[in-house]
Amino acid sequence: MIAYLVKMVLCSAILLLAYYVLLQKEKMHRFNRYYLLLSLIFALVVPFIKVKQQTLATTANEASETIFLVTETTFKTVSSAIEQPVHHIDIWPNLLLAAYFLISGILLVRFAKNLYQLWLKLKNGKTVLYQNTQLVLLPQSIVSHSFLKYIFIAKDDYNNGAVNAAILNHELAHVQQKHSLDIVFVEVLRIIFWFNPFIYFYKKAIQLNHEFLADAAALETCNNVASYQYLLLAQANKPTFNQLASQFNFLITKKRLIMMNKTTSLTRKIVKQLAIVPIIGSLVFVFSSKTIAQDTLQKLTEKVPSKVAENNFKKPVNAKIDKGMEAHFIKSSIGYSATDASEELVKEYETIVKKYKKDSTNRWQSIFRDITQQDRSRLVAIFKQMSLQQQLKQNVVFEKSLGPLKREVPTETQFNNFKKANFYGIWIDDKRVKNEVLNNYKASDFAQFDISKLYGAAKKGRSYTHQVNLMTKAYYQNYYDESMAKKDEPMMVTRFTRNVTVVK
Questions:
Q1: Containing domain of residue 322, as a range?
Q2: Residue 448: Cβ within 10 Å count
Q3: Residue 435 lies in a domain
């Protein structure tokens, strides 16, 4: 969500800047009107646009499936994150959400109040049909303004014939061109996306462009530009009445007076409009979401970090393995036979493995926790009798032990960051502790640490996104001694696949 909002704000800012630089000073008001409105819509939807990027295969055999490895050495870390939920209450997201709805509520109330004021005027005023629209005659002296199909003018001015025809034509242009709908649209966006500061500049730009359009329509019936400008200046000091209405004296600026006498050649218009095209194309590329498209649908094998959480794994592997994985197995092999093991032995191996599979989930991680020493020893014995190709087809395999984790002390910066409960969950010597417990330690008190990111369901019920496992010096020494004592024992590894979407 944060990424979407940042993209939306930046995109709207760039498009608004392009308007100020290329379009605002040119006399092509209809194009500018649609540009401003569509820019807002574009900024809202461009992060959802998906752009395909063609990529070459990174291996000789590109695939639609990826193989993940999970070892019994790291399963303890993964399962501890899953089995020991700790709930932290982070008040800041709730406060920010409350602030958002409070401000949006205030803006919504103001929007409703403005609509209500216009409705009261319509209810209390007398209406007169005028060129397929309605004049609303009000008892007070006001500046002429319009909303939807209604033009609001002073009753005395109308009865005395004091309403200038140019003023009526100006407001009539607002009505006929439905400028009120643009303003309502921007107001709704401002209620929802009030934190985007550029929304406010968009509204001013749209309203000023509305005045350019209405001025142009009024001047078609009033050939004297100078007299029309004097008429504008005569209305300049009169107060405004409603944020939603188009008013005759809105933004009496030098820009508006200059625009009446300005001309823009057709060539200049075309060049300016075409200059927008590469900007739009660049924004689509930069702010859209990317989808990687690959040319082939062969098999890809990838070893990923062993800290991948359990819930990423979908279904067992039983597919042809590429040369990269074969080379890995040879390098880490505990031994294999030059000939295939008998079908009876392979069936016995698979039967033992399936005995520890969770039937409801199609996963095998429970084998690390539940397997007996007798079954484990039997699996190792059968595994060594298999050929390399038979080993590669198994979901549970054995490799050389990696040995103990190396001694690694966190830096002071890392250690201080671990105290952030909204980002890190802390384990010390395989026990879950609160982050503030770290205040009782120094970074140098620890001999080893590792950081793993939580994925999928492992994040459920947690306020943090990463798990940190710290070992004190004494605990690490015991761990190291135990690991070295078992360094000659093979390591059990499970392999799983998940689908990877490949776009043709």
A1: 313-399
A2: 20
A3: yes
Same domain? For 375 and 416 the reply is no
Rounded to whole angstroms, the Cα distance separating 163 from 172 reads 13
Which DSSP string do the residues of 353-389 spell out, in sequence order?
Answer: HHTTSBTTTTB-THHHHH--HHHHHHHHHHHHHSBHH
Over residues 408-434, the pLDDT tens digits come to 999 999 999 999 988 899 999 989 999
The two structure tokens encoding residue 135:
């004049």
The residue to which tokens 């001309």 are assigned: 263
Which residues contact residue 96 at a Cβ distance below 8 angstroms, ignoring those fewer than 6 apart? none
Amino acid at 126: K
Question: Dihedrals φ, ψ of 146, to 5°?
Answer: -140, 155
In a domain, residue 200? The reply is yes
- Residues 6 or more apart whose CB falls under 8 angstroms from that of 111 comprise 187, 188, 191, 244
Residues 136 and 39 in one domain: yes
- Contact call for residues 33 and 209 (beta carbons, < 8 A): yes
Pair (151, 263) in one structural domain: yes
* pTM greater than 0.70: no
Residue 365 to residue 155: CA distance in whole angstroms: 83
| pLDDT higher than threshold 50 for residue 284 | yes
Alpha-carbon span 185 to 173, nearest angstrom: 19
Secondary structure class of 471 (helix, strand, coil) = strand
The secondary structure of 249-263 as a DSSP string is: TTT--HHHHHHHT--
CA–CA gap between residue 256 and residue 215 (Å, rounded): 9
Per-residue pLDDT tens for 78-123? 444 444 444 445 577 788 889 999 999 999 999 999 899 888 888 8
What gap in Å lies between CA 386 and CA 342, rounded to an integer? 8
Q: Quick check: 125 and 137 in contact, CB under 8 A?
A: yes
Exposure of 308 in the CB half-sphere (CA atoms within 13 A): 21
Pairing of strands 289-294, 50-55: parallel
Amino acid type, 197: P
Strand partners, 452: 467
User: Are residues 299 and 319 in contact, defined by beta-carbon separation less than 8 angstroms?
Assistant: yes
Mapping DSSP onto H, E and C, the string for 325-362 reads HHHHHHHHCCCCECCCCCHHHHHHHHHHHHCCCECCCC
Residue 449 sits in the same domain as residue 324? no
Q: DSSP labels for 63-92? A: -SEEEEEEEHHHHHHHHHHHH-------HH
Residue 3: pLDDT band (50, 70, 90) is confident
* Pairwise CA distance, residues 87 & 329, whole Å: 41
Q: Which two three-digit tokens encode residue 447?
A: 């001999």
Closest by alpha carbon to 119, among 140, 150, 158?
150
pLDDT in tens, 14-37: 999 999 999 988 889 999 999 999
Q: 383 near 341, Cβ under 8 Å? A: no
Could you give the CA distance from residue 146 to residue 166 in angstroms, rounded to a whole number? 14
